Amino acid sequence: MIYQGKAFKVLEYSEGIAELRFDLEGESVNKFNQLALEDLGEALTAIEQTPSIKGLILSSGKNVFVVGADITEFVANFRLDDETLFGLVMDVNQLFNRLEDLDIPTVAAINGTALGGGFEVSLATDYRVLSTKGSVGLPEVKLGIFPGWGGTVRLPRVTGADNAIEWICTGKTWKPEDAIKIGAVDAVVEPEKLMESAATLLQRCIAGELDYRGRKQEKRDPLKLPPMESMMVFETAKSFIAQKAGPHMPAPVTAVKTIQKHATLPRDKALEAEAKNFVKMAKTPVAEALVGLFLSDQFLKKQAKEWIQQSGPVEKAAVLGAGIMGGGIAYQSALKKTPILMKDINQQGIDLGLKEAGKLLSKRVSKGRLDSAGMGEVLNRIVPTLSYGDFAGVDLVVEAVLEKESVKKAVLAEVEGQVREDAVLSSNTSTISITELAKALKRPENFCGMHFFNPVHMMPLVEVIRGEKTSDKTVATVVNYARKMGKTPIVVNDCPGFMVNRVLFPYFGGFTQLVQDGADFRKIDKVMERFGMPMGPAYLLDVVGIDTAEHAQKVMEDGYPDRMKTDVKTALNVMFEQERFGQKNGKGFYIYEPDKRGKPKKQVDEKVFELLKEVAAEPKEFSDEEIIARMMIPLGLETVRTLEEGIVQSAIEADMALVMGIGFPVFRGGILKYIDAMGVSEFVTLADQYAYLGPLYQATDGLRQMAEDGKRFYHA
């Protein structure tokens, strides 16, 4: 043993070759926290002072290589002043420089995932050998920043500027075949041969067969790119990346500009240029929002793990009602290796469900994400049936039949008699009370809501709805199944619309009031899309289905008559009466025709303006700011109510539900984070300006108290 710390050890691997092993005590994964960084410095000192070391392997004592920096420490550091934060970033760069500048050959043996700072430290070594089970990447742009520990400096010098720009600006995690193709790693080997291959590389360097010193010098020198080619690469990249990233995500374009700026500089000056722009990005509201969402996601995963400890088994599932939704649920379950029965009352429904699953699998095959054998395996896990014959062996059932209370009650009561007494039943209802549906059951404690969002394979959120009699074990089992399906479950208490739909309909209420007051629905859509919503409210209603929205609106009105019931006919009612149901029948607020790929493309229909005259005032111009205020206030206030009433347990869960459920802009961090950014007091004042519009715009007493006390939804 040459050195032993709490994060790094320096061991003798073989004669003349040492192993610098990262194995952070008390953690399941390696990450660069302050302890690890200090320990790395001590380990490097020990290596520098041991002349018998002729070559060095950087390795990991965990199943993954290094997941990156400790994000919790990141948050605290981002609040420091610019000069202090710059100094901390450069301290890490000096450490990585010491590794790079060792007068011996160095190889990173990447056994698993190497992300962010984990990949950056491997770029400081002369060579990289990657396990076939490993992956590498620089995902920092997903946090509103870009690599700050030499990633934008070293990767272009290793792979070329164009490849580095793609890797840095997409933030993707790359497989071994991608990494070897562009030269990001030097070899890909089976896991059992990883250390041996790394040692062989070092022995070749020591024998003079490989020019490791040339490798070091190449990374210290300016980027080798002729001026004309440089201009073409960077100017083209900036234009393309700006278009892809959009106006609200500055980090990708800033990363390209940073690489362009330091391309002509030697390493040490280039690292300074990188660090300065990194600090600028770290100080943006976007970085604060995205880092917050990352931490919120970690919080939800931790919560799910705690629930799963109480879960019953989920080895076999069933879905009642095939069709598009049932087929989507069956596909997702089977894809994630939980076998599922798909039952319907007629063969037509079964055929539709299998067609949906087959279509989704075919897409994966065409994109190279699955081969034909894999597709066959997934389809074999979906067992179509017209009877309850095999239901005795099912652990969990998802009911996904017609959204009608009497039908659901009948189906749930029927299936309860066909499953084991400890089997869990769930309903995919989007509006009907779980407590009410449970009245049809003998074992209501074994029943809860499991609300998937459409399309199932794309939408990450599942609302797990607890009825009055739902047991903890039932909730835990459904949470477990959702996680096994690759979804993010959020547990909410029962109420009309649950969490997401309850909050969404006041947003639609803000939209229909604006139309009623003379606003052009097309402008509302454009303003809200510029705000960051994936689609404006009129377009969203067309996608959801006007008939579906009309039905859900009635549920909301019955549930919250004080603020959601209106005696006035709305734009939504007009579209429904005219049987303009949206994309499903080709006409709603817009009309739809298939594009070249067969996808519905929206176009303006002049007839709509005539139809809306029945409910709309004379056309009036509204500012962007007023449209945003009138859309966000009802959305924000209803979210506050769900929190105050205990429907959702925390601001984190409320915000994550809306980010994942309706596509609330990630760069804003969620509606409650948005209110915090504005200031609770300022939001209440804004709501008061529009209180004349009705109860949807009137702040709660609890929110007023928060404003008076200077409180926030999120604390530092």
Shape: globular
CATH level-four homologous superfamily name of the largest domain: 2-enoyl-CoA Hydratase, Chain A, domain 1
Strand content: 5-15%
Uncertain runs with pLDDT below 50, 5 residues or more?
none
Secondary structure tally: strands: 20
Computed over alpha carbons, the radius of gyration is: 28 Å
Biggest sheet features:
8 strands, mixed
How is the CATH topology of the largest domain named? Answer: 2-enoyl-CoA Hydratase, Chain A, domain 1
The overall pLDDT, averaged over residues, is: 95
Q: What is the quaternary state of this protein?
A: single chain
Total domain modules: 3
GO molecular function: 3-hydroxybutyryl-CoA epimerase activity; delta(3)-delta(2)-enoyl-CoA isomerase activity; enoyl-CoA hydratase activity; long-chain (3S)-3-hydroxyacyl-CoA dehydrogenase (NAD+) activity; NAD+ binding
EC number: 4.2.1.17
Domain 3-hydroxyacyl-CoA dehydrogenase C-terminal: 497-592
Pathway: Lipid metabolism; fatty acid beta-oxidation
Task: Kindly list the characteristics that best describe this protein.
716 residues, 2-enoyl-CoA Hydratase, Chain A, domain 1, Rossmann fold, 3 domains, eight-stranded mixed sheet, seven-stranded mixed sheet, 51% helix
